[in-house]
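Dear colleagues,

As part of the handover before I leave the project, I'm documenting each prediction I ran so the next person doesn't have to rerun anything. This entry is a single chain, and its sequence is reproduced below.
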Amino acid sequence: MLTKAVVSLLFLLSVSRCGTSWQSYDAIYNFGDSISDTGNLCTGGCPSWLTMGQPPYGTSYFGRPTGRCSDGRVVVDFLAQFFGLPLLPPSKRNGTDFRKGANMAIIGATAMNLDFFQSRGLGSSIWNNGPLDTQIQWFQQLMPSICGGASDCRSHLSNSLFILGEFGGNDYNAPIFGGKSLDEVYTYVPHIVNKITSGVETLIGLGAVDVVVPGVLPIGCFPLYLTLYGSSNQSDYDGDGCLERFNDLSRYHNQLLKQGICSLQSKYAGVRLMYGDFYTQVTEMVRSPRSFGLEYGLTVCCGASGQGSYNYNNKARCGMSGSSACKDPQNGNATCTNDLQAFTGWLTLIGQ
């Protein structure tokens, strides 16, 4: 899969407020999946079956596996450090002070609830662990300890940054890996986007003012997809070596999501909604990896070395027996870069 470090970089490329000085926040509250999970499955120690709980995960920054899907930091770690806040603790960690931030994201999360997949014969095809509605419930359970009463919460949350997503990646993995046709998967997109925008509206109702809503990544560039669905027909690939039909799906999702965000923005004039453009930045990294300090392009740094065109084998994923990591992970596409300062000059001002 494309590195979560890459996502950390592009998030910094995409999220800030307009003006000549940076917005300061009292806290960051994050919702999402493996792209931004900071260890919700490892609050009592990582379970032995969790590959992200095994070396070489955590090598580049923490020195140990933390449950992050990276060998270093993920999206919200970089954002927290940029805004001068502590790294976001997993929301499931008991006895933690969440007043400066909490991370509800969890590996395997979907936008849709389990019943959506069960009704389509996909109940056994996904690992639905903390979908969006559940993560919002987790946050609501934390609110009394974060900010007390309703008026105090309004004040605190209005000075906090909310990040909702990326959501959707696992919602599409489930039917695609479950053998559904892309034509059918396309019919899921409006449901998934509506669930995401509904979640944004719920957070606004709780008091959120600044909300970032990232789109999905170009899944046709993922080594997993390239390995499982590779084609002998070169016309199935775009100029970057990615599978066009899957990237079309990602673009369709992002198009509808941006439309949904715009509709919400017109409804809530006092709220700042920001779209996080993961797709464009990852595409640029695939197209010109060395411009971003990367060397390996679409070939995974940590995986089944020497197998296939992408070093990917689903039975020898990073952290599993039979996998290995490259010797220069800072140059690879399965690691996190350690230098936050390298990113801050690339920030793009977005919003209204």
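Residues 182 and 283 are 21 Å apart (CA to CA). Residues 4-296 form a domain with the Rossmann fold fold (CATH 3.40.50).

All the best with the project,
I.
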